[in-house]
Amino acid sequence: MFIYLDESGDLGFDFDKAKTSRYFVITLLVCCDKSTQDEFRRAVSRTLKNKLNRSKNKTRPVQEIKGTATTMAVKRYFYRQLPEDGWDIYSVTLNKARVDDHLRTRTGKKKLYNFLARFILEQVKFPEDAPRVSLVVDRCKNKEEIKDFNQYLANQLEALLPLNTKLDIDHLASHESAGLQSVDMFCWGIARKDDSGDGEWYQVYRGKVRFETIYLPQK
Fold this sequence. Notes:
The protein has 6 helices and 6 strands. The protein is α/β, with parallel strands linked by helices.
């Protein structure tokens, strides 16, 4: 089983700043096996080749697909390249306005991020016969934060995973992983829906969303 984790928005709490997001979203793309993972890699490759790098005059080819930088037509093309089965989406949206003050500090934000990652991973149903679960996270943390994150999740997931299942956690740059680029597309769509009410892209793949919730919703 292969799991890709990405986020949209930020964990800043100065809402007077124009770029501070109202919500923070963590989304998982879960591929049940390697063949499904390979299909995602081919879908990303085709999208880059046939839609984003068609012009032979480009001096700087596009290296990755991103939700913020692709048109709706490109998003729909990407989705048509995906396999029909073997993958699911899980997502949690944090309503930042209701986060307590002690979690708005630097240390608190780390705890909050780790908690949300654990929360959404707990929603995944891990098969009893899975020999290995590979979790790939977008690399946006320093070495200390990566160590804390890995240790925390490994301890928390130990009770959820079958006894003989090995857990691997890798932090990669998004251009290194087609899975991370794919989950970025889905995460952007959920964030766009929740933040601005624009659900056009979300409606395309909503049938693949197995779990979705808003954490700390409005009272």
